[in-house]
Amino acid sequence: MLYHRWDITPRRAIALQRELASRVRIEPIRGPVRTVAGVDCAFAAGGARIVAAAVLCDTATLGVIATAHVEQPCRFPYVPGLLSFREAPAVIAAVERLTDRPDLLMCDGQGMAHPRRLGLACHVGLWLDLPTIGTAKSRLCGEHKPVGNNRRCRVQLRHKNEVIGAVLRTRTGVKPLYVSVGHRATLDDAVRWTLRCARKYRLAEPVRQAHMLVTSLSRKDR
């Protein structure tokens, strides 16, 4: 498992990202995946506090098994490309509060589809040593060809001559997701599990449930 200090400068954070990116393992997900957790976070109190939620689901039914959330002071400044240093501590704490450790973790954010190959899903996956997938609603970097309009259509997301993810249509006629490896998974795993968990909506159900929970929690502080 990974441990490091979070109270560092942006310059040190960039160097740490480059160091940690080499530890990300791209490998097939091993063992049965009976549970999958989705995580999301939001900001409250004018951005001074961060709320993170984790929702554990059964992979067969996508029914919710357990939920957990945390609220913490936001200690890292907003710096594009360094969002994991702002969000990961709360996300990790929320996952650790779940009653059971998930077999797979899905983040509302980037994995390797990041300029330095260390988005939120990679950072959290390394810290928790869990198979982790990044499912982002928008592109952070890279280029891709047009993606087909039907569910399951996908194209490669490339950056600096490297495949860093997939642009995946989870619903016909709906904007695609930017899917990438977080840790201990392959890109094919990431695409397959995203589709398997996005049966009715654009977002994978565990992530959608986490988004609804964290949105509700953050609104209470307004």
Strand content: 25-35%
Task: Work out the radius of gyration.
Answer: 16 Å
Helix count, DSSP H or I runs of 4 or more residues: 5
What is the tally of beta strands?
8
Mean pLDDT across the residues is 95
Helix content: 25-40%
Structural class based on helices, strands and sheet pairing = alpha+beta
CATH superfamily heading: archaeoglobus fulgidus dsm 4304 superfamily
Q: What is the 3D form?
A: globular
| Total domain modules | 1
Q: What does the main sheet amount to?
A: 8 strands, mixed
Could you tell me how far the N terminus lies from the C terminus, measured between alpha carbons in angstroms?
36 Å
Output the CATH topology.
archaeoglobus fulgidus dsm 4304 fold
CATH level 1 class label: Alpha Beta
Instruction: Show unreliable segments.
Output: none
- The CATH architecture name reads 2-Layer Sandwich
Features:
single chain, alpha+beta, 8-stranded mixed sheet, 222 residues, archaeoglobus fulgidus dsm 4304 fold, globular, 27% helix, 8 strands, 27% strand, 5 helices
